[in-house]
């Protein structure tokens, strides 16, 4: 079960947050902010290798007893964070990677919209539907 999907801009404020179920959304804010610190550490550790890649799947950022936190960074330093239930052992690394690619492609579609101002929160019914279907697909 994917519990939370977050997109953060390079300045680390959230552009989009979606959780299933929705009542747990506030509970995960601490987890997300902690994971952003880990993302920044991994990016700085990669250094010049990051410049050579078009996208960067960071993999498992850190596990807790109940959750696993995964990260992904685009070449424009937009960070995607996904919190997954630890009991979901069927979810493999390849599936997480493809979910991040799907999320990245949909984010790119949002950025191509001439009415979207970069840095604003994402309010798109199509994007919401894609994220919800992606989260439910895993359940």
UniProtKB/TrEMBL annotation:
Domain of life the protein comes from: Eukaryota
Gene3D superfamilies, alphabetized: 3.30.450.70
Coarse class of the protein's main subcellular location: cytoplasm
UniProt entry keywords in alphabetical sequence: Cytoplasm, Endoplasmic reticulum, ER-Golgi transport, Golgi apparatus, Transport
Gene Ontology BP annotations: endoplasmic reticulum to Golgi vesicle-mediated transport
Keyword Cytoplasm: yes
Subcellular location(s) of the protein: Cytoplasm, Perinuclear region; Endoplasmic reticulum; Golgi apparatus
GO cellular component terms attached to this protein's record: endoplasmic reticulum; Golgi apparatus; perinuclear region of cytoplasm
UniProt record similarity statement: Belongs to the TRAPP small subunits family. Sedlin subfamily.
Stated name of the protein: Trafficking protein particle complex subunit 2-like protein
Species this protein is from: Grus americana
